[in-house]
Design a protein that fits this description.
This protein is of the alpha+beta class. The chain is built from 3 helices and 2 strands; from the N terminus they run αβαβα. It has one domain: Glycosidases (TIM Barrel), CATH 3.20.20.80.
Amino acid sequence: MASPGLAQFILDVKAMGLAVYITELDVDDSRLNPGSSDGMVAGVYKRYLGRVPGTGAVSSVLTWGVWDTPHYTAATPGQSGPMARRPLLFGADGTVKDASWATEHCFARTP
C-alpha cells in the first residue's frame, strides 16, 4: 500500500524534472483468505491508485499483466510460501473484478 510519504516523494521527483512511471503493478494476495481476497485486492488498488497517480506527476501506469493467469500459482525459483491467486485487474477468463472497477474509478478522478 502507498504510504503518505510516497506521494510527496513522487512530487519531489517530478519537481527535479524527471518523469515518474509506475510499472509491474499487481497486488500480492497470497496471504489473504481466498474468500475475501477480491475485495481486499480492490481496496489496495484503490488506496494506491487514489494516492499516487492523484499527484498529477505520474506519466503512466503499467500492470504486470491484464488478467490472472496460472503463472502466478506456479512455483518461482527461490520463493517459498503461497503464491498470489488473483493479483491483477481482470479474472483469468477476462471477467471484470472489483479491482477493475476500483482502478477505473481512480483513473476517472485523476487530474
